[in-house]
TrEMBL record:
Its main location: membrane. Its EC number is 2.7.11.1. It comes from Cucumis melo var. makuwa. It is an enzyme of class 2 (transferase). It is found in: Cell membrane. Keywords: ATP-binding, Cell membrane, Kinase, Membrane, Nucleotide-binding, Plant defense, Serine/threonine-protein kinase, Transferase. This is non-specific serine/threonine protein kinase.
Amino acid sequence: MGICFSAKIKAVSTCSTGGNLNSMSRDAIDLSSSSINSKFSSTSIPRSEDEILHSSNLKSFSFSELKLATRNFRPDSLLGEGGFGSVYKGWIDEHSFSAAKPGSGTVVAVKRLNLDGLQGHKEWLAEVTFLGQLHHSHLVKLIGYCLEDEHRLLVYEFLPRGSLENHLFRRGLYFQPLSWSLRLKIALGAAKGLAFLHSEENKVIYRDFKTSNILLDSNYNAKLSDFGLAKDGPTGDKSHVSTRIMGTYGYAAPEYLATGHLSAKSDVYSFGVVLLEMISGRRAIDKNRPQGEQNLVEWAKPLLANRRKTFRLLDARIERNYSMESAFRLAVLASRCLSAEPRFRPNMDEIVTMLNDLQDSKGTGGPRRSRTCKQNTDSGNKEVTAYPRPSASALFT
Ligand SMILES: Nc1ncnc2c1ncn2[C@@H]1O[C@H](COP(=O)(O)OP(=O)(O)O)[C@@H](O)[C@H]1O
Ligand SMILES: [Mg+2]
């Protein structure tokens, strides 16, 4: 278990112990092989833990307060679970921050460290450090924390629509398939969050970009949560930092998996995987699918490279009120993000610009012409789009 109680850190100390290489968990885990362990960044300026906890404007909660706020972590208020632990719905008074009666005051999400899990103090401190300092409309707001004996908890604003993962992959009345325009909106919001982290002033690498870490407010504004693996990016003219390989199977960039070299472009790769999940409605790794389809990137790559085949990627549950041109352009963007060579991947600012353009064209394909056709369906006369004929034009740069 990777608990590190070092008092000196910059943002995330790199001391950690082994993980489970064979696990196909969708949670963030240690993906390293032992050969990588010695490659740690030496550029960190140590900051004491006390300094971090006191310099932030975060409220320090006692364990008993959070127990009360969540009604003793009642199973029926469980919002979700991840590698760090379980997240519960709770209520606090908006002025005093003390526990409030359910249904009154402010709703919060309380994440509690699973003491038997693979994550620990290090990941908890990383969240406090980054979310205590970084504020943006596309990052979740951290309200406070609890550090008491072995207990490690985090208190966030409550995001009523939960995770993108649930909306893409869960079935049920509450989880209706997301429309194309909502998918674009969510992709754009998440891209803005990542662009903010990568900006010159922050230079932070998120390292665990995936659908379960993208939360949605009531208007489907995307907010990045879960900063347990976030890491300060390279300084000076360095292109990467060397770290122990942490992340989630199916999302981690190949060069990071192979060398431990982490850069902003590693996040861009993960962004490409999430785009593919949003386009296809398929999970990055899905052991329930037939051989050859279990790894989304491997399955999708030949389809992305061929304009005539791209339509086979599309999530059949999306209502067909968008143009194939819009779908192609998103697929091309995903394909560029997934380039094996990091320097061929766009940066997050470029991605934000491209997604803005796509959104402005309202999914109709923008300046390029898209062809639509009328088709009779069971549900009546519906306008649907036809995918273009084979074209010799190069789609990939
Ligand atoms: N602020 C929140 N509001 C609503 N649901 C949340 C919130 N934070 C987390 N969740 C739910 O809990 C799940 C796990 O949270 P996360 O922070 O990713 O935990 P972990 O660090 O254990 O991976 C999310 O995927 C989401 O479903
Ligand atoms: Mg998570």
